[in-house]
């Protein structure tokens, strides 16, 4: 097993001395940082990287101080790139040609400084935004600029994020090139040569080969390694289960204004990848396992940094149909080396040891989900069958039980329900409703109707099934006063927030209900000053980790229905009045980005189009236009006339396809401008009265 990297003694004093020399101009910033006993390097030697192709053998010979130093940007360069980053974040270019010209100019200024920018705290986000907007040829050129330095960049605090962005944004290019007749050429080079994105990924893997074991537990490189494994395996990049593996919840997403970041089909579904990628995955797993002994693999199972990567490697190993069984050392054989059904065996001891561990239990979830059927049955009968009720009560092992329940046969499921049913009251009292939900879903899926009836009776008894209080109790609310408090002031409890989000779905309720519900959530401000100051519920929702999800649901709910779109504008306008508070809050910044409020402030009409498109995407595929919306608008195939006795005739082209509120806005605009039809058209075209782009106060709604 490779030894852990350790810092040499006296390194802190050495760093202080080097900092003093650098501040006094005595040290050249272009020199590589040296270990304490190394000979001075000549000044004319330029260090661009280190050769780490061989596995680390001695921690004393290869220390953290030997990482290359790429230099620092000059003050003028930092100012230029900072300004370029601001312009790219806004992305407010008049045309695509001007945007392409600006990107080309930035790349020209960054030539030869790519490594410095990627490692810079202030400019690394510029590199991420450049990658977001880059063409495939520009991405390939960045691969070349980073070449021979990936093993160091992936371990860097800031450069590792640039590598992740480059890998993720380049993954769809690999799939696209599989169906293309020829590969695009690298641009802006003295010699143009045909190079594929597949070969660039494989070259990157060659650089990392030999360091995989160390990268598993590196704070920053482990994330990048998981990104590479997901890309090589062709797994979806944007699904929730994948995103939780690739990044932490605290990571702030780098965005570009006016850029459609809606997940594409390639990122939401499993991608086609070359056969070389599958071979690369198998080689990474086999080489990594070969360099680790059993004790080190088991340490990784409870290691906070190594565990997520080990989960992914184990999942890829167990789901690979071409992997060789029984002939090679594998991760699952290292974790469970002997018969788990034998009491006191190494496998049984390890399994029971991680069952209650907050980190190790996640690896056990992966084993229970993807283990072959024969192995899963052995695990269930030896570990879970006789004590599944007690494991279901525990706040850690209950998540493993959920994975086990999802794979049980009908007979085993009925036995499990019989054991867990007496514990339903305790699960309800502890708010362990996820496992109850899983039991109901699995009984329905397996057709265990008798068990489902017994389970329903146990749940009813646990909630004291009184129709007047059942919903409140299931929402963890004791009384109506508490409900009013939650709906008017917030922040709410997570169960209440989930119920509200479900109620706001366009397919779950009609427009009238949603309008009344939104008026209850956001009552009009007090008209008199005697009532005292009141907290804006919209502001409170935006700053709440739980309530911010409700705001996102409100956006999709109101944007999908024209009669409710004025509510979207009203909430967006209220959010902009709290811009300072939102930008200082982590959840506030997420709400600001999801509601596209920068675009709302600059280009209202474009914001309207994007928000309405977002609302249409949230509708069920089988019903592009909800029935309640058609009824509210007074349209439909069977009725050619509008409301109130067919005031809008069927043949009137100006009124076809317009909602009642749109027509009311046009009428208001026409009245405001003197009643002329030309004035109404001008108002609807120039000020957005026909599109809903105006503020609520201007239309008197």
TrEMBL record:
Biased composition (Low complexity): 670-683
The entry's keywords: Repeat
SMART domains from the UniProt entry: Pumilio
First-listed, main subcellular location of the protein, grouped into a coarse class: nucleus
Subcellular location field: Nucleus, Nucleolus
Biological processes per GO annotation: endonucleolytic cleavage in 5'-ETS of tricistronic rRNA transcript (SSU-rRNA, 5.8S rRNA, LSU-rRNA); endonucleolytic cleavage in ITS1 to separate SSU-rRNA from 5.8S rRNA and LSU-rRNA from tricistronic rRNA transcript (SSU-rRNA, 5.8S rRNA, LSU-rRNA); endonucleolytic cleavage to generate mature 5'-end of SSU-rRNA from (SSU-rRNA, 5.8S rRNA, LSU-rRNA); ribosomal small subunit export from nucleus
GO molecular function: RNA binding
Region (Disordered): 1-70, 242-262, 524-543, 619-701
Bias type Basic and acidic residues, positions: 1-16
Name of protein: Nucleolar protein 9
Gene encoding the protein: NOP9
């Amino acid at each position: 097993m490779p030894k852990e990297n350790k810092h040499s003694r006296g390194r802190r004093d050495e760093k202080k001395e080097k900092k003093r020399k650098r501040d006094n101009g005595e040290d050249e910033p272009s020199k590589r940082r040296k270990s304490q006993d190394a000979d001075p390097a000549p000044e004319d030697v330029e260090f661009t990287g280190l050769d780490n192709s061989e596995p680390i053998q001695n921690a004393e010979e290869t220390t953290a101080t030997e990482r290359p130093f790429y230099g620092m940007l000059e003050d003028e360069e930092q100012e230029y790139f900072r300004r370029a980053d601001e312009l790219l974040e806004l992305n407010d270019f008049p045309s695509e040609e001007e945007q392409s010209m600006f990107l080309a100019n930035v790349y020209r200024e960054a030539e030869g400084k790519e490594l410095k920018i990627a490692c810079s705290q202030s400019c690394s986000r510029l590199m991420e935004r450049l990658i977001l907007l880059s063409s495939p040829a520009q991405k390939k050129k960045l691969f070349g600029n980073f070449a021979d330095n990936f093993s160091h960049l992936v371990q860097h605090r800031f450069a590792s994020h640039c590598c992740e962005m480059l890998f993720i944004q380049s993954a769809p290019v690999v799939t696209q090139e599989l169906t293309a007749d020829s590969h695009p050429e690298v641009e802006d080079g003295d010699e143009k040569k045909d190079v594929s994105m597949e070969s660039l990924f494989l070259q990157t893997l060659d650089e990392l080969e030999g360091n995989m074991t160390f990268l598993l537990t590196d704070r920053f490189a482990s994330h990048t390694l998981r990104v590479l494994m997901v890309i090589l395996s062709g797994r979806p990049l944007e699904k929730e289960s994948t995103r939780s593996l690739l990044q932490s919840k605290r990571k702030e997403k780098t965005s570009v204004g006016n850029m459609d970041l809606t997940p594409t089909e390639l990122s939401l579904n499993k991608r086609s990848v070359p056969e070389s990628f599958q071979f690369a995955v198998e080689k990474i797993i086999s080489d990594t396992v070969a360099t680790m002994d059993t004790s080190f693999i088991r340490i990784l199972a409870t290691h906070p940094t190594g565990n997520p990567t080990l989960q992914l490697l184990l999942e890829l190993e167990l789901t690979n149909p071409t992997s060789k069984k029984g002939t090679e050392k594998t991760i699952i054989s290292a974790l469970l080396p002997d018969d788990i059904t034998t009491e006191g065996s190494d496998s049984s001891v390890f399994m029971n040891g991680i069952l209650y561990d907050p980190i190790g239990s996640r690896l056990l979830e992966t084993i229970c989900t993807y283990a072959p059927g024969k192995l899963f049955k052995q695990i269930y009968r030896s570990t879970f069958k006789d004590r599944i009720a007690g494991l279901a009560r525990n706040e850690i092992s209950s998540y493993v039980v959920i994975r086990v329940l999802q794979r049980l046969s009908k007979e085993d499921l009925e036995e499990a329900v019989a054991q867990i049913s007496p514990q339903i009251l305790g699960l309800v009292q502890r708010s362990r409703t996820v496992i109850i939900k899983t039991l109901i879903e699995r009984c329905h899926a397996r057709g265990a109707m008798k068990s489902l009836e017994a389970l329903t009776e146990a749940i009813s008894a646990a909630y004291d099934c009184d129709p007047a209080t059942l919903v409140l109790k299931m929402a963890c609310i004791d009384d109506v006063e508490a409900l009013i408090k939650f709906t008017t002031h917030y922040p709410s409890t997570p169960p209440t927030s989930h119920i509200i989000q479900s109620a706001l779905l366009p397919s779950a309720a009609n427009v009238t209900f949603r309008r009344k519900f939104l008026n209850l959530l956001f009552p009009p401000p007090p008209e008199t000053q005697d009532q005292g100051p009141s907290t804006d519920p919209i502001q409170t929702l935006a700053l709440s980790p739980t309530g911010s999800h409700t705001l996102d649901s409100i956006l999709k709910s109101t944007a999908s229905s024209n009669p409710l779109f004025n509510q979207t504008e009203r909430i967006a306008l209220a959010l902009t009045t709290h811009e300072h508070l939102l930008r200082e809050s982590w959840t506030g910044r997420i709400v600001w980005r999801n509601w596209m409020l920068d675009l709302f402030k600059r280009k209202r009409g474009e914001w309207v189009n994007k928000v309405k498109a977002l609302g249409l995407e949230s509708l069920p595929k089988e019903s592009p236009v909800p029935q309640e919306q058609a009824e509210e608008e007074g349209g439909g195939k069977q009725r050619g006339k509008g409301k109130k006795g067919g005031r809008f005739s069927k043949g009137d082209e100006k009124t076809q396809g317009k909602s009642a509120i749109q027509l009311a806005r046009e009428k208001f605009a026409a009245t405001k401008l003197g009643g002329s039809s030309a004035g109404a058209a001008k108002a609807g075209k120039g000020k957005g009265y026909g599109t809903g782009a105006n503020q609520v106060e201007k239309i008197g709604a």
